[in-house]
Amino acid sequence: MGKALDGVRILDMTHVQSGPTCTQILAWFGADVIKVELPGRGDITRGQLRDKPNVDSLYFTMLNCNKRSITLNTKSQKGKEIFRKLIKACDVMVENFAPGALDRQGFTWEVIRDLNPRMIYASVKGFGPGPYEDCKVYENVAQCTGGAASTTGFDDGPPLVTGAQIGDSGTGIHLVAGILAALFQREKTGKGQRVTCAMQDTVLNLCRVKLRDQQRLAAGPLMEYPQYPNGVFGAAVPRAGNASGGGQPGWAVRTKGGGPNDYIYVIIQPPGWEHLMKLCGRPELITDPEWATPEKRLPKLKKCFEIIEQWTMTLDKLEVMRKLNEFDVPCGPILDMREIAAEQSLRATGTVVEVNHPKRGKFLTVGNPIKLSDSPTEVKTSPLLGEHTDEILKSIVGWSDTEIAAARNEDAI
User: Fold this and answer.
1) Which of 43, 118, 208, 253 could be a cystine partner for 309, CB 3.0 to 4.6 Å?
2) Is 168 considered catalytic here?
3) Which stretches does DSSP call E strand in 223-275?
4) Which of 12, 168, 201, 213 is an active site residue?
C-alpha cells in the first residue's frame, strides 16, 4: 500500500525538537526526509541526555525515525554546491535555526526560490515579526511568553510550565499543517512559498481559552474558577489549578493507594450528578434545592469534589474509572509514564512502538498519533550519523564515487 506523501522529498535542516517533530510526522506519512547534519557531530541531541555510552540518545532516536541522514558542511564551497543541488531536487525545506542563520550563509528565501520556484521553505521561529523576533527561544521560554505559564499552577504558587512540550513539539505539529496546505496550494499554482510558525504564536493558539477568559473578566468573576466565590480576581486571568477550563466543572481527586499519581480527574456534568451522588452515598443531594442545579453547585465546587473524593479514596483509580464509565461520567485516571509504556492498547494502535536500533538495541518511542486508513504508519529506526550520505549523493545529486571521495577529502561531507 502506498503512503500519503509518497514522492514528496523533504530537505530536513532541523535539529533538537521542534523541527524534527515536524519532519518525523512527514516521514511517517511517507515523505523521503533527508536529514542534513554537521560532519563529525550531527544533531546535538545525538549526545544529549544519554542513557547508554557511545550510542545515539533517546532524545535523538525518538524524534528522527523514518529519516535518512547525510552529513554536509554547508559553509564549505563543495558543501554549498551539494546543498544547492539538494534544494533543486526537493519539494520542501524545513529549518529551525536561530534567526538569520541560513541567510548569513547566502541562502536567503530569494536565493532558494530562484534555485527551485516550487520549493516550500518552512521555518520554526521563536517569535513572529516585532521587537523580539531576533531572540532565541526554547520550550519553556515559549510557554512563558505564550500565556501558558501564567495560567498554569495554583493561585498561591508561582507560574508553572507543563510537562507537555507544547512550545517545541506543538509548533512542529502546527508547521506540518502549514506545509501540507502549501503542498496542496502548489498543486493549483505550481509555485512554492514561505511557511513560518512562531513558538509564541503556537502556545497562544493552544491557550486560546485563557484569552477567552481574559475578555470574560470584564463582565465579572469567572465562576468556574476555584477563586469563586471567596477569592479575588485581578486584572489578568488567574491560575486555576486543576479546574477544567470548560463549561463543566472538573478536578483531580485522590484514589486508593496514596501514591503520587493515585488520582482520577472527574467532571461533573448535569446528567451525571444523580449517578455521582448515588455512588457517593449522598442521594439526598440529588434533589436538595441547594445542590440540585449547576448554578447552586458553582459556589460549592470545592465541597462537591470533597464529597466525591471521600468515595474515590475507597477504590483504586481504574476501579473508579470503570464504575463512572457505567454511567457516562467523564473521568480519567492520572497515568504515569510507566503505566503508559505498559498499556497494551497503545501498543496495539501503534501509539507506543518498540523499535530496534542497530547500536542501542530495542527502545520505546511514540508512534504516529494521526491514523490514516489508507496510509498506515510503519515506524522505522532513526538513522546513524551520515548513514545515507553516499546513497543520497549518488541517487539525488548524481555524483560518482570519485566526486564523493573528493568532497570527503575537503571535509564537505
Assistant:
1) 253
2) yes
3) 250-254, 263-267
4) 168
